[in-house]
Amino acid sequence: MALVCVVSVFFLQGCARSASGVAHETGAGGADLITESDEPDARKRARLRVELATGYFEQGQTTVALDEIKQALTADGNYTPAHNLRGLAYMRLGEMRLAEDSFRRAMSLSPKDAGVAHNFGWLLCQQARYLEAQPLFDAALASPIYNGRAKTLLAQGICQARGGKPVDAEASLSKAFELDAGNPVVAYNLAQLLFNRGELVKAQFHMRRLNNSEMANSETLWLGMKVEQRLGNRDVMRQLGDQLKRRYPQSREAGFYERGAFHE
Q: How many Å apart are CA 96 and CA 2, to the nearest integer?
């Protein structure tokens, strides 16, 4: 399922890139941000290791990234980005308990760090701990200096939908769309929610927009077909079906279309 995978990569990579900056929020104490001119040697060594680890992580070399993170924490065990990135790495490896331990440590060091709150919330969402995840997303969104609001609103909306709160999910995903209208993951998840709720015209708006872009794939084409089929637009549905068979003939969705399995 391409877009489900895109969701995970979107969150992990986006957070990894922000994990290694020199300037870092110091938490409840309100101290000045650390910059290169006054960065202690131990902190500098840890930061450089995390920068290396981030590069490895984004290239998919997760275990190599973990080795660099271990060395960063040996240099400075209180460096929040190292604990945060370690949580992301363990999360990617499916080591959820270790990931949670890492995020809890990062939160204890920097309780106002919105990026850490987002990551921890997303981890809990993956474990179906939806009620526990929501306060963390709220905390991230409450930060006045956080620049990842669209990402967190998307995560929050997905968790609300999975947790049986479609009205709240629609509100979160709609806000995410307002902030990042070009994000295909936001558009797809919002359209899927609207389709499930029977709001077909709204779902059609998002799917036509997405399927007319270069971001279309087998999943978006199939959802678009289901929307058009439900609305009785047979010609548009067949056009999408032809595109699906031509571009993704081996996909699961092409198989659904061949069988006419619009309700699977």
A: 23
Helices (H), the chain: 2-17, 41-58, 62-75, 80-92, 96-109, 114-126, 130-142, 149-162, 166-179, 184-196, 200-211, 218-231, 234-247, 252-259
- C-beta of residue 152 within 8 angstroms of C-beta of residue 132: no
Nearest to 196 by CA among 169, 234, 236, 233: 169
Q: What is the pLDDT of residues 198-241, one digit of tens each?
A: 999 999 999 999 999 999 999 999 999 999 999 999 999 999 99
pLDDT tens profile 35-53: 666 778 899 999 999 999 9
- Within 10 A of 29 (CB to CB), how many other CB atoms are there? 7
Task: Please tell me the predicted confidence (pLDDT) of residue 38.
Answer: 72
Query: Which residue in this structure is represented by tokens 């994990």?
Result: 19
The reported pTM is 0.84
Q: What token pair was written down for 32?
A: 């000045």
Q: Which amino acid is at 88?
A: L
Q: How far apart are CA 150 and CA 176, in angstroms?
A: 5
**Is 72 in contact with 53 (CB distance < 8 Å)?**
yes
Contact 244, 27 (CB under 8 A): no
Report which DSSP code applies to 23: S
How far is residue 130's CA from residue 177's CA, in Å, rounded to a whole number? 22
Give 136-189 pLDDT, tens digit per residue. 999 999 999 999 999 999 999 999 999 999 999 999 999 999 999 999 999 999
